[in-house]
Amino acid sequence: MTSKLDINPQKNDNDSLIQYALTSDDYLDQFVPIIKAELANKESLEDLISRLDSAYKEKEDTLEGASFTSIDKLTSSIENISEVSKSSGQIGQEIASINGQLRKTGLDYLDKKKTALKYKRLHNKISETTLTINLCLDMLDKTNKVFELFHNKSYYKALINLNLLMKSRSEDIEMFEFTQKIHNSLPTIKQLIIDETFNQLIRWFNVSFEKNLTAIGEQMFEHFEKLNQAWAEQQQQDESLLPFKVNTPLERAFRDDELKSFNPLSNDKIQIDLGPIYHSIMVFELIDEFDRLKDDFSNELLRKRDRLIYPIREALATRKLDMFSNNESLKIVIYSLAAFFVTDRMIAAKTEYQLRNKKQTDDLFSSVITKFIPVLKRHIEKYHDDFQNLKELNEIIGVFVQILENYEFNVEALYEVLITLFQQYISTLTKDFELDYQNLSLEENPQPITIENKTQLNNVQANCFHKFKDTITEFPVVLPFSIIYVATCLKMRVFIHDIYDFVGKYYVHQNSEILKLIGKSVDHVLINIVLKDLKTKIDSSYKEEVSQNLINLEFFSRSVIEIENYLNYSSDPTIARCRSSSLLTRLRSQKEFQAIQSKAEEGMFDMVDSKIDMLFDMVDFDWESKEVNEEPSIGIKDMGLFLENIFMLDFSHLPYTIKSLLLIRTFDKIVNFFKQSIYQTDFITNESIMNFETDIKYIESIIPGLKQQKTSTRHLTADSDTSNSTFQTIFAGLTQIIDLLKDGNLEAYKDETTRMRKFNTILPEEAIELIQKLENYQVLKREMSEPEQQEHVDPNSGSNGDSARSMFGFKRSNTTASFTSPSKMSMFKRQIS
């Protein structure tokens, strides 16, 4: 197997080499290596020759097969060539036939081409004619289009087309007469369009603008009335919005979209077409004459202004300012003015301030308003006593100001007119208040008011500014003040409400000035009407009337601070709408009431003092009496009776504080009189001291009855306690004098502890002087005198005085006794108050 494997590969390789060598052109050269290899391996060429023979036979067989195949193909090719030859003959005949036809066709084509050239020349002539006709038709069409747009009032488009027509001139049609006429007329047509554009603007001024001013103004007024109503409804739902008025930033933020989008020139009832203005702008910008349009537009607007305010200018020139017969005629003029100003502003804004700038609209507004305000003020003055017309004017001017402010006009001058109107309304309201108050005052019965049931009490408490501190559960009950106090409080509430209602919607600026006017008006009513009337009544000669009106005065005085609080802190929406947390109203009425009250008290004090002085003339103390009286003297009884009559009858309804002050002042005066009586006498018996003490105790005994108050439920018990201590203080000095005189000597007085406890109001000089007046002292003094002394010595002389003081153990003092103690009224008044 091994030798076979070794031989076969070599044999195969040699066969391949032989095959390769036989097929090669230089096979002899190729066989040389093969032969060498064969000889080297086998040393014999037999195998090689055998293989060469086999290869030869194989090649020969192959060549023979190929020869037979080539002969078959050659035979087939000859047959095919024969057939092709036959076909070529037929084709040649056909080509000859086609060539004949082609020649005939060429001749026909030549004839047709000549005809086509002839027609082409004709077509070119027709095309040239058509082009010329089309150019003419195009010019005519453009000219007709210009006139069509002109008749349709589309002047800007007409001018655009006219410019295109002027730029589209063609030399091909310039030789025609009608085209020359058209081109020559184009400048005239252009000027016609420009003139008609401006004429259309003038017609717009006359028809759309001027004739609709009143209607536009009326629509704006109706819109702002709806706006005010809508804002009032929102304020009712949210009271925190009350201080904010229409046109404030907050109100604008809350404003309904439908109200925001209102256009006075385009709405359900008014449609003002601004197309002529826009066309004019475009036309004059196109012809580069916009400045001319601006001047002409402004001049035309000024002419309309002059026509509008002609009656006003005539009124100013003739000084006949009362040109409006009623508020309706004024309203029509204001409608027109508002529409005129707003339309001017809107046109400026819609044209992006190209046609008119903001300053021009402001200047136009100022030029009219400065002339209108004097006439408006005169019309306001005409209704100085007419509430209804003043309220109507407030609505008209207020909405007018709101409209102008909404479109950013400067309304300061008009707002001053509103302030003037408000002042006149206050004046009218004050006169009406004064008239009603005078009627109340004339009809009033100066008696305390009687409340029958809880309902009446609630009504009184709701209307009065006085705060009732006590709870009243039993009826009927008598209140200290009279009916005029309740009626005046109610009238004052209505007065304040009417004032705030008047300024509630339209008075946005100068809030401090508004509040000052309100405060002054309330002060004026309180001082010049109420207080003036009370002052007159207090000066009356009828004691009951004086007494009751002093009570009313006290309640009015107390109510001033409550009225002030009502103005500053009331929860009433009408007042809260105008109130400012940073600005508080301060009334000066309280000081005026207190001054009059003090003056009235002083007047009563003087009256009581004069009566008491008359009584003093009838009182005579018998200091030398030797009898002890069992009852007070007649003069003292008369004094007590007088005091009971005046304080329990005439002054029974006086305010407790005033009555207490009167009592204190009266008894202070009486005590001083008693002291003076003691110090003025030179001789005092023991019996007269007992009688004097009886008189003093009688006077003290009537004090509790004099202090009784018929309507004392509104007073605190502390007032009574304070007055009791005050009366004890008044009589303390007199009681100490009586005790010292009853002792008859200064032994107890010399003891410092006893003196400070029992005689602290008596000075040493006064004590000595009092003891020297006693009968026992003077008897002792006579007994101690030397019998031979003939000269009478005055017991009050310096030497005797010194010896007496030495005798009682006191040194001489430079201090002299004061018979009239200083008045304690200021201290008592502070205690009582």
TrEMBL record:
Residues 414-773 form the Exocyst complex subunit EXOC6/Sec15 C-terminal domain. Residues 784-794 have a biased composition (Basic and acidic residues). Residues 812-824 have a biased composition (Polar residues). Residues 784-833 are annotated as: Disordered. It comes from the Eukaryota. InterPro entries: EXOC6/Sec15 (IPR007225), EXOC6/Sec15_C (IPR046361), EXOC6/Sec15_C_dom1 (IPR042045), EXOC6_Sec15_N (IPR048359), EXOC6PINT-1/Sec15/Tip20_C_dom2 (IPR042044). Keywords: Coiled coil, Exocytosis, Transport. Residues 52-221 form the Exocyst complex component EXOC6/Sec15 N-terminal domain. GO terms for biological process: Golgi to plasma membrane transport; intracellular protein transport; vesicle tethering involved in exocytosis. One of its GO terms (cellular component) is membrane. Component of the exocyst complex involved in the docking of exocytic vesicles with fusion sites on the plasma membrane. Belongs to the SEC15 family. This is Exocyst complex component SEC15. It comes from Ogataea parapolymorpha (strain ATCC 26012 / BCRC 20466 / JCM 22074 / NRRL Y-7560 / DL-1). The lineage of its organism: Eukaryota, Fungi, Dikarya, Ascomycota, Saccharomycotina.
